[in-house]
């Protein structure tokens, strides 16, 4: 039997708003979660981005809020400011006709004084990141005494970012008589630990990969040399005539490189990564949503929570280092019944990771043919002809009709030469350093191209969670405790031991060191090796390839409020 929104017992105000948004039939997660939440049950849901989970926990929250009471009744925690903003915007759309409702979004990077003033006025629903929520609780600006509905959205991300202690503290500050809703893309032991500690007989809901995989998305990969990825990206953008695109890279540095290259080639492009201030992020997203920039180059974490309708393609410039991230990325396109494309550039030594993604998603990704230079010239010629036809049909050419004569007179060129030059200027396409047969993989493998196969799997996954605050402490805690002795021990192959000028006397714990290094250097906490903490100093192992970045990133930074010096241990 098909479930419709009007059969869920929703109020007229919510049903009217949902209908205006174009929805009549709830998604699988909504159909399962909303009735249980309206009944007052706790819910533990496993669902990916793009499944409609915001409405799944948001609609019941809006239905339960007492508009006449200005005190905070609903608290929603999100891992990033972008996701917090997205959740708030979605709730505002659903609550369009619920007059008197006040929502407030709180996150770092925005004025805490402004947020405190807004909370004093009153907000029935507060959406925020754990760190800023903790700050506001400590300042007694956010009071949780009357909260009866708590949501942890993308809980696995919050744990990866080192928020476990904050989450525990926040949930312990909320009255016991409450509903607790927890959504996560994965159900790890730490996630289950939170559920067991803070939920009461939750209804468990799982949206399978088959349901998550959007059949409206055409998935294609291209076998590309690493140095040819920019050229192929340009050809793909032109050949598919893509209007609004997100290009994903694994690191902030690569985002900047790709953005600069595309901008220099005349594309309207903006970048999004963790080094941008909130005002800059808002400006970038405003340009992208309005179409002032039609290409957004982003890292995975910076793009969490981006919800822009009409994205017609996602390009994986770098193959994601975690299978789940592939699902998150391609879920940005092909939404609301629209079709979309997921185009992935695969270097030769990345192909085994492509196979892992296919196994994980249970979808065969088709191999694409790289458009040739002649293909792109043909596309741009056709586009130019259409532009000429449109310009002639709209008229107002009398101002320019004397230009051909002037060009003949001043340059001495023939009509054919002048027209060809104007076409060249308009089309902007130039032969690059790459011949077509230089873009795809070589037939023979060179020794220098075998890096991925020589590295172990643990090191291989080093890019997941770029920009996160820390690793999964519960899974790695065993090899991070202090050891006997006072000097640096021999580090594992491929790792470099660093000296850190804080220790036990500074109340430093392993998670503090992991969080600081991961957050400032942009490396995932899970690749950080053993940590030895002594009274006045500590040692930490990091991958050799990241050592210099860690030392530079931590220069002038603090751990536990104390300025630190980090250098390679002697």
UniProtKB/TrEMBL annotation:
<dbReference type="InterPro" id="IPR012677">
    <property type="entry name" value="Nucleotide-bd_a/b_plait_sf"/>
</dbReference>
<feature type="compositionally biased region" description="Basic and acidic residues">
    <location>
        <begin position="451"/>
        <end position="492"/>
    </location>
</feature>
<dbReference type="GO" id="GO:0042255">
    <property type="term" value="P:ribosome assembly"/>
</dbReference>
<dbReference type="InterPro" id="IPR000629">
    <property type="entry name" value="RNA-helicase_DEAD-box_CS"/>
</dbReference>
<protein>
    <recommendedName>
        <fullName>DEAD-box ATP-dependent RNA helicase RhpA</fullName>
        <ecNumber>3.6.4.13</ecNumber>
    </recommendedName>
</protein>
<dbReference type="InterPro" id="IPR014001">
    <property type="entry name" value="Helicase_ATP-bd"/>
</dbReference>
<dbReference type="Pfam" id="PF00271">
    <property type="entry name" value="Helicase_C"/>
</dbReference>
<keyword id="KW-0347">Helicase</keyword>
<dbReference type="InterPro" id="IPR050079">
    <property type="entry name" value="DEAD_box_RNA_helicase"/>
</dbReference>
<feature type="domain" description="DEAD-box RNA helicase Q">
    <location>
        <begin position="3"/>
        <end position="31"/>
    </location>
</feature>
<dbReference type="Pfam" id="PF03880">
    <property type="entry name" value="DbpA"/>
</dbReference>
<keyword id="KW-0346">Stress response</keyword>
<dbReference type="GO" id="GO:0003676">
    <property type="term" value="F:nucleic acid binding"/>
</dbReference>
<dbReference type="InterPro" id="IPR057325">
    <property type="entry name" value="DeaD_dimer"/>
</dbReference>
<dbReference type="GO" id="GO:0009266">
    <property type="term" value="P:response to temperature stimulus"/>
</dbReference>
<dbReference type="GO" id="GO:0005524">
    <property type="term" value="F:ATP binding"/>
</dbReference>
<keyword id="KW-0378">Hydrolase</keyword>
<dbReference type="GO" id="GO:0005829">
    <property type="term" value="C:cytosol"/>
</dbReference>
<feature type="short sequence motif" description="Q motif">
    <location>
        <begin position="3"/>
        <end position="31"/>
    </location>
</feature>
<keyword id="KW-0067">ATP-binding</keyword>
<dbReference type="GO" id="GO:0003724">
    <property type="term" value="F:RNA helicase activity"/>
</dbReference>
<dbReference type="InterPro" id="IPR001650">
    <property type="entry name" value="Helicase_C-like"/>
</dbReference>
<keyword id="KW-0963">Cytoplasm</keyword>
<feature type="region of interest" description="Disordered">
    <location>
        <begin position="451"/>
        <end position="494"/>
    </location>
</feature>
<comment type="similarity">
    <text>Belongs to the DEAD box helicase family.</text>
</comment>
<feature type="domain" description="Helicase C-terminal">
    <location>
        <begin position="216"/>
        <end position="377"/>
    </location>
</feature>
<dbReference type="InterPro" id="IPR014014">
    <property type="entry name" value="RNA_helicase_DEAD_Q_motif"/>
</dbReference>
<keyword id="KW-0547">Nucleotide-binding</keyword>
<dbReference type="InterPro" id="IPR011545">
    <property type="entry name" value="DEAD/DEAH_box_helicase_dom"/>
</dbReference>
<feature type="domain" description="Helicase ATP-binding">
    <location>
        <begin position="34"/>
        <end position="205"/>
    </location>
</feature>
<dbReference type="Pfam" id="PF25399">
    <property type="entry name" value="DeaD_dimer"/>
</dbReference>
<dbReference type="GO" id="GO:0016787">
    <property type="term" value="F:hydrolase activity"/>
</dbReference>
<dbReference type="InterPro" id="IPR044742">
    <property type="entry name" value="DEAD/DEAH_RhlB"/>
</dbReference>
<dbReference type="InterPro" id="IPR005580">
    <property type="entry name" value="DbpA/CsdA_RNA-bd_dom"/>
</dbReference>
<dbReference type="InterPro" id="IPR027417">
    <property type="entry name" value="P-loop_NTPase"/>
</dbReference>
<dbReference type="Pfam" id="PF00270">
    <property type="entry name" value="DEAD"/>
</dbReference>
